């Protein structure tokens, strides 16, 4: 691990203790946390995307606002659900965001996780899927998205404006954008697919597999398979890899009051069903800094990844969330190899 950022689910609502009761609260506080995190040396500000729910659903305006107010912190998603997207419109917006952010973009995309709406992407107008979970249209749209950001001429030109036989590419184009695309991988097979495409890989706090291994070991195998597929496909870059964890340093009485109980059942991996598949979810880490360092050093996936995303309790407001990030930056991250954003952008590991 060389870098860490925060991953916000963007919840808002009138639950007890919530400081993000409206969408406006959530969005404005997200910008405040992003700006404050940069000042702490945090490397990334990442946001989950869900539809038909009281969560973040339109990340591009939010990321643009954070990018425009900062200079060093990476902005990104974890992840955009491609089933709900127009691939060419997303390609245009992503290119513009990449330019505004001066390359500080980590755009995580995937088929998406279970949503509150049943086949909600059909309400967005995207029909024709023969897969109960929409994976087929997600992959097809993602292929078109990649072709668009690579500059392929996809639309016939109007002969009254551009002459006969002309084909047009989307605009704007950002030459660095493809290097900043990540696929959110939930299995070892999809990790290999991501490697063959030469993309970066995001791996979350859950995998849609259950081999009986501890979660961190299964995720470490996923990362190694990704890198081997990347190498075998002939790619010669230095792909990025991120993993997500729930980690709370307990440094004061308020931390203990909020999260001290997480030392029970939640401190173990869990197994169950997710989206019709057996799944393995990683544990929650909530402890004093010295104990956290000892436990996190045993996490094989964190050791293999260049970036660690900390899920944050966004409804507790900017001050408390920045306190969590500061505690991790001050008391835990240096012992894991962290380099603050003042030391330059994060890089992946070269594939030999």
Automatic annotation (TrEMBL):
<keyword id="KW-0560">Oxidoreductase</keyword>
<dbReference type="InterPro" id="IPR011251">
    <property type="entry name" value="Luciferase-like_dom"/>
</dbReference>
<dbReference type="InterPro" id="IPR036661">
    <property type="entry name" value="Luciferase-like_sf"/>
</dbReference>
<dbReference type="Pfam" id="PF00296">
    <property type="entry name" value="Bac_luciferase"/>
</dbReference>
<dbReference type="GO" id="GO:0004497">
    <property type="term" value="F:monooxygenase activity"/>
</dbReference>
<feature type="domain" description="Luciferase-like">
    <location>
        <begin position="20"/>
        <end position="248"/>
    </location>
</feature>
<dbReference type="InterPro" id="IPR050766">
    <property type="entry name" value="Bact_Lucif_Oxidored"/>
</dbReference>
<dbReference type="GO" id="GO:0016705">
    <property type="term" value="F:oxidoreductase activity, acting on paired donors, with incorporation or reduction of molecular oxygen"/>
</dbReference>
<protein>
    <submittedName>
        <fullName>Flavin-dependent oxidoreductase, luciferase family (Includes alkanesulfonate monooxygenase SsuD and methylene tetrahydromethanopterin reductase)</fullName>
    </submittedName>
</protein>
<dbReference type="GO" id="GO:0005829">
    <property type="term" value="C:cytosol"/>
</dbReference>
<keyword id="KW-0503">Monooxygenase</keyword>
